[in-house]
Fold this sequence. Notes:
The chain is an alpha+beta fold. The chain has a single domain (2-280), classed as Porin (Beta Barrel), CATH 2.40.160.20. 18% of the residues lie in helices and 57% in strands. It has 2 helices and 12 strands. It has helices at residues 2-26, 40-65, and strands at 79-92, 95-99, 103-108, 111-124, 130-143, 146-154, 157-162, 165-179, 193-207, 212-227, 232-255, 258-280. Strands 1, 2, 3, 4, 5, 6, 7, 8, 9, 10, 11 and 12 form a 12-stranded antiparallel sheet that branches. Helix 1 (2-26) runs antiparallel to helix 2.
Amino acid sequence: xxxxxxxxxxxxxxxxxxxxxxxxxxxxxxxxxxxxxxxxxxxxxxxxxxxxxxxxxxxxxxxxxxxxxxxxxxxxxxxxxxxxxxxxxxxxxxxxxxxxxxxxxxxxxxxxxxxxxxxxxxxxxxxxxxxxxxxxxxxxxxxxxxxxxxxxxxxxxxxxxxxxxxxxxxxxxxxxxxxxxxxxxxxxxxxxxxxxxxxxxxxxxxxxxxxxxxxxxxxxxxxxxxxxxxxxxxxxxxxxxxxxxxxxxxxxxxxxxxxxxxxxxxxxxxxxxxxxxxxxx
Length: 281
């Protein structure tokens, strides 16, 4: 009997590990053979594929743990899991672009965009205030046609123009989470109202017109969750993302009627505010 029990525990361990690895692997954007901007249709297909992978992993584990034949048996991961989706707005701060071997353009602006994403997380039972979370989100931003100040000057001009274009931004992250519970009751002993924070590394891909920039990032979030039901919550969340030394090739700058195409290097500071719902199991 001990041998059979050990085999069962080992099988559960393997299943849990496979699910976690599948989720983490699915959040990493795949390599691109050519540096061309991704179309909205392609982006939607990618998002649907990643979303279905995470959703399938979460549902599979939920069904496994709640299967009638397992009632009363201990769970391999003894804690609280959740899977959720969200949508909202994204704002990128004005940037200073350094055009390689050319000049520097100041305060390059990006129009506000929309963001949508999914997340999968876990809080331990022994320390219910501590958890882990993996997330992926997708943003579309517009680089609008604008005049900028350049330094040093080109062709005796200290003004130039940035050409309009679309940015498609794919962000994946892993965060350490902390939360606190207010308004506990019999249905939700930890508390229905849960403020929380998270911090961790991210990986971000910015698809421009002719190039894709891949960079690591710092990801921070702060949110407020309310348990509408025992297993369903709604949340409001602020997300902060910072990238340093992003490089996009073949960026266009118009100065005095002449067009220059150079690699542009800049930092990206992104603020997002989203609303979402999650299922907890």
